């Protein structure tokens, strides 16, 4: 029977994934599998997948997961029937409404306008006009537009359930307190305005008063207003409602007054409101929330007693891709403060998510790191004060983006702080820096980003994922993406055995003592650049460390060298192993059997077998007693020796017949381990 072609195998796999996703209620898997099917074959699964898809859209909309909604919108574009199949008109409109706002909040304006065009006829005229203007201006319409869209007072119908006359309420709103003209009028005027006006109108009125009253009255006026608005912040926090607007008003008053100590409690409350809201958005703050956090944190950082809390909030707050420019502006301001050094690490990670490959950080980040690295121990302190996610981003980005001299100092100082987990990330950073230095010495440039993106897209498709542009950037900046780039670079540039250039050799000599014990590839580089046997032996000792006399450790090192294509390291470890076990029949027997268990190639086991045979012959001649490992090792050595000898057919010039490798392997195992094969014990 002929094997199905690739398209047929993909189709069968898609059908299987579709069935599994529906059985488990996994919309992600079911929709991905449906889209992998040819368009004519999707009709049978749409009746089950479409309701599941619309339910997922509704759930993500309630949770505010805008990036996931963008992914859903992309899938709806590929298969529009997901929105309309077996759906009432109201269900379709609800799904489109969610997808429209998900695309708009992610700044995917073309997709947002596409769904709005299908909704416009079903929306109230004023609402449709407002949304159309908002989307047409890419989220930044002129303020006059919304003022024109405000309903006239006569269009507000009376509602007897409210318990008051709307006309009387409008009249009371029109009556406002008079701005104070003397110190004794400040408190009555502010309290009256707070009673007559709503929260937002009160803030606008206080800012207008502060601009128009005599200069001596503005501080007292804004101080009292800030305390009143802080009450709104506290009330919203207790009710579990968002408190962005009153918290921003407190921050503005606090900054305008010069961060006075008497308003430190109110500023702390605003920081708490911003932190509570930021913790609820694990996927990162959007532009509006980022603007609020920047305003609140920037104002609180002006007070020395609140600067630590403001820096900590900025360091722990994640930002969505669309808000990175706002985050960088905030971090730039905070990094100029005396206690803002830890935020340089955050700024570098934020910048790297939007940077093109090979780009340099902004000058203020480079200057900040130069000054930070000039102060011994300061980098370690900053790394301890930022969260783990920021540590990983900085350690991964600094060696690849900072100037070479600063990147070298960064690795040197960060190594003293790092634990074993962080050192692995620093080793990746060292590889990046060494590649940069070698590139300046005439080495080929890095692989094109488009090629890496294509490979990552293929890997994601195999896993049933469809990442958007932002998620793809994060994948490229992740350890997996960087490791893929290094692997591809190694495959594109085969090792020629050449020594490191002069500049790269200086960098290598500075870090070799510290990094060689961690990776077999570093031992290979050390052997490539060694000048004699003494240096080669020292490099091997450095790699093995305290286990330099352990035969099993050396065999494991040989296996690692064989897997990572490090022939010099493999040869050095083998020579060291044979030399250490010279004359030790039991040690050579155990090493030979362990090499077979590790499935090392014959080129590794052969020297061990010859060394064992030599010492075994001498021991048998002297009549020495044998341990339990000697007989199996002798049989293993004889089998290796028999494989090396030519057959009679080969000796006569005829090709030997091929034998069943599987049967031969089982036969040898039965001869080597007869007790284990039979299941008996002596």
Summary of the model, kept short:
The protein is 71% helix and 0% strand.
Describe the secondary structure blueprint for this structure:
Elements: H1 6-24, H2 27-36, H3 43-63, H4 66-78, H5 81-84, H6 89-105, H7 109-119, H8 125-136, H9 143-148, H10 166-174, H11 186-196, H12 199-212, H13 218-239, H14 244-256, H15 264-279, H16 287-300, H17 307-316, H18 324-335, H19 343-352, H20 363-374, H21 378-385, H22 388-401, H23 404-417, H24 420-440, H25 449-462, H26 469-477, H27 479-492, H28 502-515, H29 520-528, H30 533-544, H31 551-563, H32 567-580, H33 585-597, H34 602-622, H35 630-644, H36 648-651, H37 661-672, H38 674-678
Helix pairs in contact: 1-2, 2-3, 3-4, 3-6, 4-6, 6-7, 7-8, 11-12, 11-13, 12-13, 12-14, 13-14, 13-15, 14-15, 14-16, 15-16, 16-17, 16-18, 18-19, 19-22, 22-23, 22-24, 23-24, 24-27, 24-28, 29-30, 31-32, 33-34, 33-35, 34-35
Rg (C-alpha, Å): 35 Å
Strand proportion, as a percent range, falls in: under 5%
Global morphology: flat
Q: What distance separates the N and C termini?
A: 50 Å
Instruction: Return residue spans where pLDDT drops below 50 for at least 5 consecutive residues.
Output: 153-175, 491-497, 671-682
- The share of residues in helices is over 70%
Oligomer: single chain
Which short descriptors sum up this protein?
disordered C terminus, mainly alpha, 682 residues
Structural write-up:
By secondary structure, the chain is mostly helical. Among the domains are: about 140 residues; about 90 residues, no CATH class. The chain contains 38 helices and no strands. Helix 12 packs antiparallel against helix 13. The longest helix has 22 residues. The C terminus is likely disordered.
